[in-house]
Design brief:
By secondary structure, the protein is of the alpha+beta class. It is 10% helix and 25% strand. The chain has an eight-stranded antiparallel β-sheet. A two-stranded antiparallel sheet has the order 5-6. It is globular and about 40 Å long. The protein starts with 16 loop residues before the first strand and ends with a strand.
């Protein structure tokens, strides 16, 4: 089965959570540091540094996903929204070792866990090229199994977290009116992300 079993796993109790405070309400995500430690720790590092605070959801497609995490989205009307990432050669800790982002701010692809892109999962966005994920991620609002890294096709997006509270807010964001570039007409800002 491609269904996620995150709810029944004992390790779930030890997983860190992040409270995402947006202009449309709050939601909480659980981060899979046990399954995708590099990707989840990258998110945690960026959240703790304040990287995500003040950014906007820059791409929202109803009944598909909400994309977030580009530093250029600080200006919600920026034509560069969707093209940025963290500082190159910056580093973060993963289980006592240091991982350094490449010169463009990207992390290594983490194709190790077979959790599917089910509703409410957080998945690493990338350009389609290997090792091109940095700070951008998306929240699936439907089961997008064609985005799984372990299924046939070109899309390869590893899941690194799951919404555990506030899915109604995620769906509210997902059904906001958008422009021709899939950007919300009324910007939706991430006021803050707090790691718990």
């Amino acid at each position: 089965s491609t269904q996620s079993t995150w709810e029944s796993e004992p390790a779930a109790m030890a997983r860190p959570r992040a409270l995402c405070h947006t202009t449309l309400g709050d939601f909480t995500v659980e981060l899979f540091t046990d399954k995708t430690p590099i990707t989840a720790s990258n998110f945690i590092d960026l959240a703790r540094s304040g990287f995500y605070n003040g950014l906007h959801f820059h791409r929202v497609i109803a009944d598909f996903m909400n994309q977030f995490g580009c530093p250029h989205s600080r200006d919600p009307r920026s034509a560069r929204a969707g093209t940025g990432g963290p500082a190159g050669n910056s580093s973060f800790q993963v289980g006592g070792r240091t991982v350094t982002r490449d010169r463009e701010g990207n992390i290594p692809d983490e194709f190790v866990d077979r959790t599917s892109n089910t509703p409410g999962t957080l998945s690493m966005a990338n350009t389609g090229a290997p090792n091109s994920g940095g700070s951008q991620f998306f929240i699936n609002t439907v089961h997008n199994d064609f985005l799984d890294w372990f299924t046939p096709g070109e899309s390869r997006h590893p899941v690194f977290g799951q919404v555990v509270a506030g899915m109604d807010i995620v769906n509210r964001i997902n059904h906001t009116a958008v422009d021709a570039n899939d950007a919300p007409r009324t910007p939706v800002q991430m006021i803050s992300i707090t790691i718990q």
